[in-house]
Design brief:
Chain lengths: ~290, ~375
C-alpha cells in the first residue's frame, strides 16, 4: 500500500510535466489544427534559460521561472510569425513539415551554442532541498513545487480561456476561423496569443524538470514531447481539460508499468495506449465525434 | 609585396620538402608511431593518453634508450575519426616504418586500425580500448593487436567479487542500461559472478540511455531486502539514479563501473547524495603504491596537473611496448609481437599484469570509494 502511494506520488510529479507540455500541443491544435512539433523544443529552451538564470545570473527559482516563461513566450510567438504564418493558407502537410524543420533547427542550434553534453542544474539548497517523510512515503519539496506550479498555471489558464475577452476569441477561432473573422475577431492576434500561452507553459515545464531531475540536454524535449502528444490525444486533442487528464494519466501509467511490470515496457505501453485510443475512440476521452459533411 | 609573398611561399615549400626527408629511418633511433585523437569529439582521451606516452618516452630516452638507441615518437592526429585512424596507421607502418603503433584511445578507432596491423605485420596497442571484442572475436585472436586495460564486462566480474569478498554482501540489486553493450555486458558478468559466489540477485531493473525518471523502479526496489546496488551504466543516468535513490531513503552501498569516473557524476547526483558509492577504475591518484607516487610527481612536474586514468594508461602502454622491444632484442615488428604476447608480470602504474592468450591483460582493478562527492578511498582488488 505504501509502495502504491509512493508510486502514485512519483506518477503525479511526472504527469504534471506531461500535462504542462500537452496543454501547448492541444491549444495550438485546437486553434489551427497543427501539431506543433517545435513545442517540445520550446520546453527544452525553457530548461536552458532557467539553467542560465540560475548558474550565470545567480537568480532564485521564482525569478528564473518567470524569465523562462517570458522568453519562451517570445520564442513561441516568433516561431509562429516566422514559420507558420506565411503558410496559413497552405496545405496542412506543408505546415507540419515546417514544424518538424523548426524543431530540428532549435535542437541543433542549441547544440551548437550550448554543446551536446548533459548539463546539471545547481544543487537546490534550503527549503527547496527539503524532504518530507510521511510514514514511509517520501515527498520531496521539488515534487510539491512541480505540483503547485502546475495547478496554479492550470487555474490561470482556465481563467484566461473562460473568463477573458481574448479567451472567448480563442474559443471562437477554434470553433470556426472564418465565422470568427466575420464577427470582427482579429484571428492573427488570437493565434499568436495561443502560441504565447502554450510556450509559456512549456517554458515552465522545462525549468521544473531542470530542478527536479537536475539534468538537461539539447534533445531532452523529444521523448517527453511525444508522450505529451499522446497525452493530448488521449484526453481529446484540442480540449484543454483533456490534456490535463491525459498528462496525469500517462504519468501514472508509466510509473505503474515500471513499478509493477517491467520497466522496459514503459514507453511501449504508452504508445500502445495511443494506438488503442486511435482505434477505439479517435476523438479522445473527452472528445465528441463530429461527423464531417461531404 | 608580391615578391615577398612568393619568396615566402618558396621557402615554405622548400622547408616542407626538407621536412619530408626527415622521416628517413635513422640507425640510432627506434621510431614508434603515435596515432591518437588530438582533436575532435574525444580529444580529451587522446590528449591525456599522449601526455602519458610522451612522459614515458622522455624517461626512457633520458635513461639511455633501448640498448643505446633513442626512441623517436612520430605523432599524428586522427581527429577522432575512424577512417583517419586507419589511414594514419597505414602511413606510419608503410612510410614512416615504425616498429609499433600506439593508439588510438577509443575502441572503435582502434578496431579500425587492426586490419592494417595484421596486413603490414606491425603491432598496434591501445591503452584504453575497453570494448570486449577488440582483440578477439569469433574468428579468433587478432594477431597484431594488444591492449593493456581490462575489458568493459570484466569490471562486472571484479565488482561482484568486491561485493562478495570486501563488503560481505549476499543480496544485490542490478540496475542495467539496456541500451548499450557496455551496460548489458557488465550486468551479465556481475550477475553470473555474484550468483556463482553464493550471492543472490534479488531484483534486476533496466533503463535506456537518456531516461531521467527512475523513481518508479527505485520505489519498487525499495520494497526488497538487499545489501548492495550495482548500476551498470554511464554517469549521465547513474548520477540521477543515485540522487533519486538517496532522496527516497535508499542508503545501501552503490557499486558501478568506470563510467562513474567522470566529474559530471558529482554535479548530477549532488555531493550530499554521493556517499557509500564505489566504482572500478584503471587508475586512481589515491593509490599508495610507490611507483604510482613517482609517476604522479613526474607528471605534475612536466604538465602542472594531476594525471587522469588515460594519462596513466598511456604511460603504461608506452612502457609496455618499450619493454617488449627490449625483450625482443631487435626492432623486427614480428619479434616485438612475440615478445609482447609473452609478457608476464609487467609492473605498471595501473597495476601489474600478464598478457593472456587473447592479448588482454590479467590485472587487478582499482576500486575507488566516494564520500560526500569526493574520491576518498582506493583499493586494489586482485582477481
Amino acid at each position: 500500500m505504501e509502495q502504491l502511494l509512493q508510486q502514485i506520488i512519483n506518477g503525479i510529479s511526472l504527469g504534471s510535466i506531461y500535462a504542462l507540455i500537452a496543454l501547448g500541443y492541444t491549444m495550438v491544435y485546437g486553434i489551427i489544427k497543427l501539431i506543433n512539433f517545435a513545442h517540445s523544443d520550446v520546453y527544452m529552451l525553457g530548461a536552458y534559460i532557467g539553467y542560465f538564470c540560475m548558474t550565470k545570473l545567480n537568480l532564485g527559482f521564482l525569478p528564473s521561472l518567470i524569465i523562462a516563461m517570458i522568453l519562451c513566450t517570445l520564442v513561441g510567438v516568433t516561431i509562429e510569425k516566422v514559420a507558420y504564418k506565411p503558410l496559413r493558407n497552405s496545405t496542412r502537410i506543408a505546415v507540419l513539415i515546417t514544424a518538424i524543420g523548426v524543431s530540428l533547427f532549435i535542437e541543433y542550434v542549441t547544440m551548437a551554442i550550448a554543446g551536446p553534453n548533459v548539463r546539471s542544474y545547481p544543487p537546490m539548497t534550503g527549503i527547496l532541498a527539503k524532504n518530507f517523510d510521511l510514514g514511509g512515503i517520501n515527498v520531496t519539496m521539488q515534487q510539491l513545487i512541480i505540483l503547485g506550479t502546475t495547478i496554479v498555471l492550470m487555474i490561470l489558464l482556465q481563467f484566461i480561456v473562460k473568463k477573458t475577452r481574448i479567451g472567448k476569441a480563442m474559443r471562437a477561432v477554434s470553433l470556426d476561423q472564418d465565422a470568427a473573422m466575420l464577427m470582427g475577431i482579429n484571428v492573427n492576434t488570437t493565434i499568436s496569443f495561443t502560441f504565447a500561452l502554450g510556450s509559456a507553459l512549456a517554458g515552465a515545464a522545462g525549468i521544473l524538470v531542470g530542478i527536479y531531475y537536475n539534468s538537461i540536454n539539447p534533445l531532452m524535449g523529444m521523448l517527453p514531447g511525444l508522450k505529451a502528444f499522446v497525452a493530448a490525444v488521449f484526453g481529446g486533442i484540442g480540449i484543454i481539460p483533456g490534456a490535463m487528464i491525459g498528462g496525469y494519466f500517462i504519468g501514472i501509467i508509466e510509473v505503474l508499468v515500471s513499478g509493477y511490470g517491467n520497466s522496459m515496457y514503459r514507453d511501449g505501453v504508452v504508445f500502445a495506449i495511443l494506438i488503442l485510443v486511435l482505434i477505439i475512440k479517435p476523438a479522445g476521452l473527452l472528445g465528441k465525434n463530429i461527423r464531417e459533411k461531404v | 609585396m608580391k615578391k615577398a609573398i612568393s619568396i615566402f611561399l618558396v621557402l615554405v615549400f622548400t622547408m616542407t620538402l626538407l621536412a619530408g626527408c626527415g622521416s628517413k629511418v635513422n640507425e640510432n633511433e627506434i621510431p614508434i608511431g603515435i596515432n591518437y585523437e588530438l582533436s575532435g569529439s574525444v580529444a580529451s582521451y587522446g590528449q591525456a593518453s599522449v601526455e602519458g606516452i610522451e612522459l614515458a618516452i622522455e624517461e626512457v630516452n633520458k635513461a639511455g634508450g633501448i640498448d643505446g638507441k633513442l626512441i623517436k615518437p612520430i605523432k599524428y592526429d586522427n581527429k577522432s575519426e575512424h577512417s583517419m585512424a586507419t589511414t594514419l596507421a597505414k602511413k606510419l607502418m608503410t612510410q614512416d616504418k615504425v616498429v609499433a603503433v600506439l593508439g588510438p584511445a577509443t575502441s572503435g578507432a582502434f578496431k579500425a586500425t587492426i586490419p592494417e596491423a595484421n596486413k603490414n605485420k606491425v603491432v598496434v596497442a591501445s591503452g584504453s580500448a575497453t570494448d570486449d571484442s577488440v582483440t578477439v572475436d569469433e574468428s579468433g585472436v587478432k594477431e597484431y593487436a594488444f591492449r593493456i586495460c581490462f575489458t568493459d564486462s570484466f569490471q562486472g566480474t571484479a565488482m561482484a567479487n568486491f561485493a562478495l569478498n570486501n563488503m560481505s554482501a549476499t543480496k544485490a540489486v542490478v540496475i542495467m542500461d539496456s541500451s548499450s553493450d557496455y551496460g548489458k555486458g557488465l550486468a551479465k558478468n556481475f550477475t553470473e559472478t555474484f550468483e556463482a559466489g553464493g550471492g543472490t540477485v534479488v531484483a534486476s531493473e533496466a533503463f535506456v540511455s537518456g531516461d531521467t525518471d527512475f523513481n518508479a523502479i527505485l520505489t519498487k526496489i525499495k520494497g526488497n531486502d538487499f545489501d548492495v546496488i550495482f548500476i551498470s551504466g554511464y554517469y549521465n543516468e547513474a548520477g540521477l539514479i543515485i540522487k533519486q535513490a538517496r532522496a527516497l531513503g535508499i542508503d545501501a552501498p552503490i557499486l558501478g563501473p568506470d563510467g562513474f569516473g567522470a566529474p559530471e557524476l558529482v554535479e548530477l547526483a549532488g555531493a550530499d547524495a554521493l556517499n557509500d558509492v564505489y566504482f572500478s577504475s584503471h587508475f586512481s591518484v589515491l593509490d599508495t603504491d610507490p611507483s604510482v607516487a613517482d609517476f604522479i610527481e613526474n607528471f605534475k612536474a612536466k604538465y602542472g596537473k594531476e594525471p587522469d586514468q588515460f594519462a596513466a594508461l598511456g604511460y603504461d602502454l608506452a612502457m609496455f611496448v618499450i619493454d617488449g622491444i627490449r625483450r625482443a632484442g631487435s626492432t623486427d615488428p614480428t619479434a616485438i609481437k612475440d615478445a609482447l604476447a609473452a609478457t608476464t608480470d609487467f609492473s605498471g602504474v595501473t597495476g601489474s599484469f600478464s598478457i593472456d592468450e587473447n592479448h588482454n591483460p590479467v590485472k587487478a582493478v582499482v576500486v575507488v570509494g566516494i564520500e560526500n562527492g569526493v574520491h576518498a578511498t582506493s583499493q586494489r582488488v586482485e582477481q
